[in-house]
Design a protein that fits this description.
The chain has a two-stranded parallel sheet with strand order 1-2. A two-stranded parallel sheet has the order 3-4. α4 (56-68) packs across α5 (74-85). The protein is an alpha/beta fold and 111 residues long. The protein is built from 5 helices and 4 strands. It has a single domain, classed as Rossmann fold.
């Protein structure tokens, strides 16, 4: 599913600091920091995007997930736990392999 399709469906996309940080990091490597900042800022300011803060309890549970799920990356487990705690309908990812074998929430690919 592409972001354009999500916007057409009028879904709200929940993001957090980890997601924005990772998107900015990757995008800036391809198009430079200034252009990445412009695009990520436009995305963040969209009415389709809801910025959600990550609570301390979510962080505690995410660290436990990273340990319990064969040493998965902590950022991925923060994203997963935040989706669970936020009662998200699905988790959108650009990298399905980071969430292989996880059935706690529906995982949708952006590719």
């Amino acid at each position: 599913m592409k972001l354009e399709e999500i916007i057409e469906k009028e879904w709200t996309i929940g993001v957090n600091a980890i997601i924005i940080s990772e998107c900015f990091h990757i995008l800036s490597r391809f198009i430079g920091g200034e252009e990445a900042w412009k695009r990520i800022s436009k995305f963040l300011d969209s009415s389709s995007v809801l910025y959600l803060t990550i609570e301390k309890m979510t962080m505690h549970k995410a660290m436990r997930l990273a340990i319990d799920r064969a040493q998965r990356r902590i950022n991925d487990m923060i994203i997963l736990q935040h989706a669970l705690d936020s009662k998200a309908d699905a988790l959108l990812t650009d990298n399905l392999k980071h969430f292989e074998g996880i059935s706690d929430v529906e995982i949708l690919s952006l590719r």
